[in-house]
Amino acid sequence: MRLSRLALAVVPPSARPGIGPGELRTGIVHLGLGAFHRAHQALYTEDAGDPAYGVCGVTMRSMAAAELLRAQDLLYSVLELDGQDASIRVCGMLTEAVGPQEGIARIADPAVRVVTTTVTEPGYRHDPATGRLRAGDPDVAADLAGGPPRTPVGRLVAGLRARRAAGAGPVTVICCDNLVGGGRLLGGLVTEFCELAREEGLLSWIGDGNVAFPSSMVDRIVPAPTGADRAAAARLLGVEDRAALATEPFRQWVIEDRFAGGRPPWERAGAVITPDVEPYETMKLRLLNGVHSVLAYLGALAGLGTVAEAMARPELAEAGRRYLELDAAPTLVPPPGTDLDAYREQLLARLSNPALRHPIAQVAADGTHKLPQRLLPVIRDRLARGAEPRWAALGVAAWMRYVSAGRADDGTPLTVADAMAARLAMPGAGPREVVDRLLGLTEVFGEDLRQDGTLRTLLSDWLTRLTADGALATARTG
């Protein structure tokens, strides 16, 4: 039997949804119906316990996820894996799963109070070094010209335009991607889009307090689901779930206390509502996401498949620890009540969880957007203090080797998933040429890092060693 409302009678009572699907009303529109949202914000919202905040999930590209969920009455399960231990729950918070055009219409519904987004860092079509909209991007240009919107920002603006026309009242838009100052960034991109499109009326409506863009910090490791995850879910549920997800027990959500109207009582589910998200956000981006990138690029060069496999190699685990202790931690002012040493040890334990099978390729994708959020702020901070960001530079050098050579240390081809992949590939180029050309990508590194002699020397030295000796030997000798 496949998971459905009817099949819930077979599911163990402890795993059934906290709110009956029939009780829900749509109060949230979510852009980006992927695994992370379903294993993070949707569960927080269910645990908050208010049936007025069911979620309309909007796909940004393929309708495959929506069709998969519709075939199961919008139900799916979430496995929590910790070593050999596993638990499961069925989430029933989705009220709809629709495509982009239907999603625009749902944003105009007066019952909707919140719009959330997880469209990945590149999805916002912005320059990561400046935070400005890439107006020359063909899809952005098509959106500005008035065609059916293709980009998340274009679709969000279309939804807000429809909401204003409908007199549907205020709405809060929460960016839930790994971006520095995500609320400010998304609000700025919407403003810039409206300015370029000459939508003065919509700009005034937004500026009059009808739309709030709070920042938020989200933290949970959610790998792409596998057949093994679906098999484990079937064993625990007693029914088949083709949309099953796997994640870790840890989760965290911190949201800036800046809302235009109503919201779910997320604090009941453990979310932190605070006037200042920045300390949480900076800590998470520089520690968890930063060390993730260091491990991913070194691990990919070493021919490893998952983050846990990278952590199982003592030399890579030590490189990650040194990055955390010697480069990232000194740049942080931790949130009140946070013990950085305990946070670091918990983080390393999370990354070592072999049950998650978090693919290195997933973490390594889109480096031109991820590095400016993760490693480059650490490098800038350390350089400004007169320090050598040695281990952060190793992570960037490993990225340079990964994208320029396109091969692991044993010669196995690597697939570089990045919007700028064609500009990054330099097979056969020497270390100094690679460093010169990649630092010249000012939309990634900015003018300041391109001109910094200390960083250039560090990168050249690391890349020379990575090229000659490979990732494992380089990390081992430090």
Fill in the keyword field for this structure.
globular; 22 helices; N-(1-d-carboxylethyl)-l-norvaline Dehydrogenase, domain 2; 2 domains; Rossmann fold; 478 residues; 47% helix
Would you spell out the secondary-structure blueprint of this structure?
Blueprint: E1 26-31, H1 35-39, H2 41-48, E2 54-58, H3 64-70, E3 76-82, E4 85-91, E5 94-98, H4 100-107, E6 114-117, H5 138-144, H6 152-166, E7 171-175, H7 182-196, H8 200-210, E8 211-212, E9 216-219, H9 227-237, E10 245-247, E11 252-256, E12 272-274, H10 278-301, H11 307-311, H12 314-328, H13 340-351, H14 360-364, H15 367-374, H16 376-384, H17 390-405, H18 421-424, H19 431-439, H20 442-450, H21 453-469, H22 471-477
Parallel strand pairs: 1-2, 1-6, 2-5, 3-10, 6-7, 7-8, 11-12
Antiparallel strand pairs: 3-4, 9-11
Helix pairs in contact: 4-6, 6-7, 10-12, 10-15, 10-17, 12-22, 17-19, 17-21, 19-21, 21-22
Mean pLDDT: 97
| Computed Rg | 22 Å
Question: At the fourth CATH level, what is the homologous superfamily of the largest domain?
Answer: NAD(P)-binding Rossmann-like Domain
CATH topology of the largest domain: Rossmann fold
Assembly annotation: single chain
Find the count of extended strands (DSSP E, 2+ residues): 12
Strand adjacency order, main sheet: 5-2-1-6-7-8
Q: How much strand content do the residues show?
A: 5-15%
Briefly, what CATH class of the largest domain? Alpha Beta
What's the CATH architecture name of the largest domain? 3-Layer(aba) Sandwich
- Kindly name the structural category: alpha/beta
What is the count of DSSP helices, taking H or I runs of 4+ residues? Answer: 22
The outline comes out as: globular
> Biggest sheet, open or closed, and with what strands and sense?
6 strands, parallel
For the record, the count of structural domains works out to 2
Distance between the termini: 54 Å
Helix content: 40-55%
